[in-house]
Amino acid sequence: MPTLAVLTAAGSGSRLGMDLPKALVELDGLPLVVHAARRLCASGVVDFLVVTTPPGLAEHVAAMLAEDPGVDRPVRAVEGAGTRQASVAAGLRAGLAARVEGADGEQEADDEDVDVVLVHDAARPLASPDLVRRVVAAVRVGHGAVVPGLPVTDTIKRVEPREDGAERVTQTVDRAALRAVQTPQGFDRRLLERAHAAAAHREGDEALAATDDAGLVEDLGAAVHVVPGEAAAAKITTAHDLRVAALTLQEAR
């Protein structure tokens, strides 16, 4: 059964200090979205991709990925929406409703074929093919929702705000049971559809929309499981993060 990957690439990149969308910012000469798409394809467990893009850039991103030799799976691009949750919902609908066509125009698969969906952020461009395989394997053995995560190494404290700006510590949280969650996140297709349908009323409000899809599954009361993440799957948010990612690539060589 095929696996669909929804690759979110609709972010503005304002915190990177760039005047172009984050997914198009270059790392080692390639846009972040290309790095992420290449690694999804290299995993060998992704059958086709849907990329969510900033407004007006769907055709550009689709053509860029279609021309890249490292992206050897069918790709569709759709414009994202105002929140991450809404963008993923748009990508999921596009991936499941549209027929995936081969080069000869013949239908290769339809929405009923898909049983596993990955949701991945282009802002995590160096998540490895091994990590992708690990997540998909965990879904296929029966876990309906799977996220990669790393143990939290910092001391974490719960605080309450004060008017003078010096927050008061109310609790030191036991970090042994805490995980910093990454993407790609993997789901049983039907479970993810139910989760998005149940939360559709929230997707247009930035204050209420979910920051990750596992949170939507948790809201249904369904179990979410964690598999080991990796440092390379760090999220790129600032210019410093981009420099760290470049160093990671250099060290890998």
Write up what this structure looks like.
Helix 2 links the parallel strand 4 (48-53) and strand 5. The protein is built from 7 helices and 14 strands. It is globular, with a radius of gyration of 18 Å. The longest helix is centred in the middle third of the chain and has 14 residues, at 84-97. With 253 residues, the chain is of the alpha/beta class. Helices cover 31% and strands 24% of the residues. The strands form 4 sheets. Strands 1, 4, 5, 8, 9, 12, 13 and 14 form an 8-stranded mixed beta sheet that branches. A two-stranded antiparallel ribbon has the order 2-3.
Structural class from helices and strands? alpha/beta
What about the largest sheet?
Answer: 8 strands, mixed
Task: Please indicate the percent range of residues in DSSP E strands (runs of 2 or more).
Answer: 15-25%
**Total DSSP helices:** 7
Helix content: 25-40%
Order of helices and strands: EEEHEHEHEEEHEEEEEHHEH
What would the average pLDDT be, to the nearest integer? Answer: 92
Overall outline:
globular
Instruction: Give the termini distance in whole angstroms.
Output: 35 Å
For the secondary structure, the number of strands is 14
Cα-atom Rg, whole angstroms?
A: 18 Å
Task: Give the low-pLDDT segments.
Answer: 99-105
